[in-house]
Amino acid sequence: MKRKLKYLMIPVVLLLSLQATSGAQNVSISTDLVSYLNFATMNVEASYPISRCWSVNAGVRYNPFTFDLGEGKEDARNKQKTFAAGVRFWPWHVFSGWWLAGKLQYQEYNHGGIVSKKTTEGDRYGFGVSGGYAYMLGKHLNLEFGLGVWGGFDKYAVYSCPVCGLTESSGQKFFFLPSEVLVALSYVF
After folding, report:
1. Is there a contact between 113 and 76 (Cβ–Cβ < 8 Å)?
2. Cβ proximity of 76 and 39 under 8 Å
3. How many independent structural domains does the chain possess?
4. pLDDT tens-digit series, residues 22-75
5. Domain that residue 23 falls in
6. Which one of 19, 46, 73, 103 has the fewest beta carbons within 10 angstroms of its own beta carbon?
7. What radius of gyration, in Å, describes the C-alpha atoms of the chain?
8. pTM for the model
9. Which CATH number do you get for residue 83?
């Protein structure tokens, strides 16, 4: 996993090291409010402008939680560690108005007990695209809306229940999934 993260972060580090003019806005930090509704998934994303219409961004989502559904029922979980790095194109100005984005993403996941007793865990990596709009609430505060999808490769294992460890199946496959429904608060420094 460390090797995959290293290759994912190399483009971001290179782009962040460029000396480009970006105007008065230097960086933004945002958090997606919808992700907190997804079993309290914590998240943060940082964006750095490299020109008037382009920014690079890196984000992480983390969910270590398991929820006890009561006696006689299995635990529900949507655990994940997700790392993403990408670019956004802003037709007007960075951090304002419409945007389109592309990103590389890696996810280690373990989810189950929500709809059925089965638990699936694995590693996914791929490429995502998204689009949205950033509404300026004030000089430093934005509200962002967006939708995104991603696809790639998934190496997984399916277990009979969250704690028994009995493997039902495992394998590798290609996938195409929604990656985000974004309603985010963004602070622009």
Report:
1. yes
2. yes
3. 1
4. 445 689 999 999 999 999 999 999 999 999 999 999 999 999 999 888 776 778
5. 2-188
6. 19
7. 18
8. 0.84
9. 2.40.160
